[in-house]
Design brief:
This protein is mainly beta. It has no helices and 12 strands. It has a domain of 107 residues: Carboxypeptidase-like, regulatory domain (Immunoglobulin-like, Sandwich). It has a 4-stranded mixed beta sheet with strand order 2-3-1-4, with no helix packed on it. Strands 8-5-11-12 form a 4-stranded mixed beta sheet, with no helix packed on it. Strands 7-6-9-10 form a 4-stranded antiparallel beta sheet, with no helix packed on it.
Amino acid sequence: MRRWVAASLLVAAIVCTAGIEYVAVSNSTDSVMCVPTLSAPMYLTVSNSSGAPIPNQQLSVYAQLLEGLAYNSTTGKCEPIRSLRAWTNDTGSDGKIELGTTGDAFVITTRYLGKTYQINATAEGAESAECVTLSLPTGNVSTTFADPFDYQC
């Protein structure tokens, strides 16, 4: 669950919708500000089918990065502001790469032994790191979360 805070001055109400929790605090003016309160990293590990990490695996990453939130007075909700980015990066010597934080969404493409693999991953964890593993050449993807409040996979 993601927790967002919309802050201004007087009255407080907690609202939960679509898995996003936020606190809307406002006065009679239109000055409401939305602030994300929790954010956890997302790690991708690329490994072979026996579980050994594949170092220096080149990845093409297309991302929708969460830049912040804006309060929508019509809906009364804090809504995401996203930016689109694309880049190429390699996994480290441990087969791992940190991609982003809570609220980011990724399409990751890589080639291995002449085949192309693509995965979609969304960083949804708030209280712990999200750990995504791509096994090659099987193409299997698994997602686990670190222990609560642990920010490393």
